[in-house]
């Protein structure tokens, strides 16, 4: 799998310009899928939301750096775990897309065609890993 340095660059812009985006990500998620907010009622200090998001970022970075072995293991096993939390199929894809949208927003005019292409490719990989394996 080729590397995708433009995705890493975009995440650099995100952290420089937006700082902690945990609030922005979950606000978008719960606006789009209000029912999901109830799943986090036990997460009173936001710790689960924070570590979930940082795992998602690490997976995206790992896929961008290649070969993405860590991301493959984490996404596949978390997808199985999340079935037991009643997280519907398709939601991992939504979560990764929201991260892309927040990153694009933070990059503003510096969002490049290379970044767009890198995200399209990595989101496709993440979506594939988020679905049950077919034989
Ligand atoms: C919209 C998509 C997602 C939803 C609604 C969701 C929901 C949840 C919920 C409700 C928990 C808490 C479970 C519990 O302890 O009872 C959780 C934990 C966790 N999720 Fe997700 N998840 C999503 C996507 C992801 C993705 C994409 C990843 C990683 C690639 C991930 C990684 C984790 C991890 C590592 C934990 C454990 C965090 C901790 O306890 O410190 N989740 N998730």
Strand and helix layout:
Blueprint: H1 5-18, H2 22-32, H3 47-65, H4 69-84, H5 91-107, H6 113-129
Helix pairs in contact: 1-5, 1-6, 2-5, 3-4, 3-6, 5-6
Explain this structure.
This protein has one domain. It is mostly helical and 135 residues long. The protein is globular. 70% of the residues lie in helices and 0% in strands. It has six helices and no strands. It has helices at 5-18, 22-32, 47-65, 69-84, 91-107, 113-129. The longest helix has 19 residues, at 47-65. The chain binds protoporphyrin IX containing FE (HEM). Protoporphyrin IX containing FE binds at residues 29, 36, 39-40, 48, 51-52, 55-56, 59, 74-75, 78, 82, 85, 87, 91-92, 94-95.
Number of domains: 1
- Helical segment count: 6
Number of strands: 0
Distance, first to last CA: 21 Å
Keywords:
mainly alpha; 6 helices; binds protoporphyrin IX containing FE; 135 residues
Summarize the structure.
By secondary structure, this protein is mainly α. It contains six helices and no strands.
């Amino acid at each position: 799998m080729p590397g995708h340095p433009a995705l890493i660059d975009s995440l650099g812009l995100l952290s420089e310009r937006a700082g902690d985006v945990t609030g922005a990500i979950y606000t978008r998620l719960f606006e789009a899928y209000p029912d999901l907010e109830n799943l986090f009622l036990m997460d009173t200090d936001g710790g689960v939301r924070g570590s979930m998001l940082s795992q998602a970022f690490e997976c995206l970075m790992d896929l961008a750096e290649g070969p993405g072995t860590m991301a493959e293991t984490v996404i596949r096993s978390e997808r199985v775990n999340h079935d037991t939390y009643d997280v519907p199929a398709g939601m991992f894809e939504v979560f990764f897309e929201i991260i892309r949208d927040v990153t694009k927003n933070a990059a503003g005019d510096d969002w490049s065609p290379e970044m767009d292409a890198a995200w399209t490719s990595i989101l496709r990989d993440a979506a594939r890993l988020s679905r049950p394996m077919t034989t």
